[in-house]
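Figure 2 data, in text form.
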Amino acid sequence: MINQLLKPALVILDSLISFDTTSRNSNLELISWVEDYLSQYGISAARVSNADGSKANLYATIGPNIPGGIILSGHSDVVPVDGQNWSSDPFTVTERDGLLHGRGTCDMKGFIALALAAVPMLKDGKRPVHLAISYDEEIGCLGAPAMIEEIAATLPKPALAIVGEPTMMKPVNGHKGISVHEVEVLGHEAHSSLTHLGISANMIAIELMHDLAELARDLWDKADPGSPFIPPHATLTIGKMEGGTAANILARRAWFIFDLRCPPDVDPDVILKPFKEKAAAIDAQLKDAFPDTGVRVEQLSNAPPLGQSGSAEAEAFVRKLTGDNVPAGVVSYAAEAGQFRQAGFPTIICGPGSIEQAHQPDEYLSLDQFSRGADFMLRLAEELKQP
């Protein structure tokens, strides 16, 4: 029997994917679309905007405004498609061989579409569902904290939060945290044959990146063999870099960005302390030679991990809906689940699709997983009708 939510969820997914909500862009068109959709069912939503109003979180209560509700959380932003070889338009859902291709189908507009499709059934529940849609998750979980703070302050206390990141509809009770840093080196330009008259920002940046590469290898070597994460250790990667003007000019500026992903028992500040101390020492040396030079290290985000303890209630509730009795797993990606837990909500991750399909060209969500997600929402609606 085909789940009655599947067809409307597919229509909604097509609409959500059509909005290019790459993190560098505004997500307001998608947010407005969701507001209009909810209004058809008499549901009002609240926005929590960023500083300049170009992006917004959105949360809405479906059902009675009482304690004990369930938060369904998903992020609206997606990663870029630049330079990727797609077989079809990334912002149009294209079905091929039972796979729904499109940027964000898996990560994680599929889950949002399923939650929205379930609204007509959820609104009749004896307990509420609080839909929470965030921005800028993909660049460090930047948007959700303000929304989570407002939810905690204004709503009757929810019982738990379900973050719908792709887990193949299996409960996940742990994820790594993420700390993102930007490094800028300012040098002093001179002819490249006269290295004693200037400072190459590129050469300084290379030295600092080498230190980070060595640190990444050290983290690998010191991995805890008992860790449930894959890979088991904290990981560090340099995601983007740029610098210089020409081959025969000592570079004026170099820049790179890196992320450090740590299991719950690893402190990113401790790991990065030697690196930051060296950067500060180099900064002082450069300024002694040329006052307009230096090294700047800025932390852009620091999203907490999700530890495996503290969410037994959420895990038991999700297991009841999935029928899954396998021990809850962990994931190495970062998510907003740690932020919900930090705010005092028992939190679990469970959503359709696999993270292995996320961020890839021809990203996809299988129809089978989408159907399993629809079954989950149907069971949730039935569960919330119980006294």
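Caption note: The chain has a mean pLDDT of 96.
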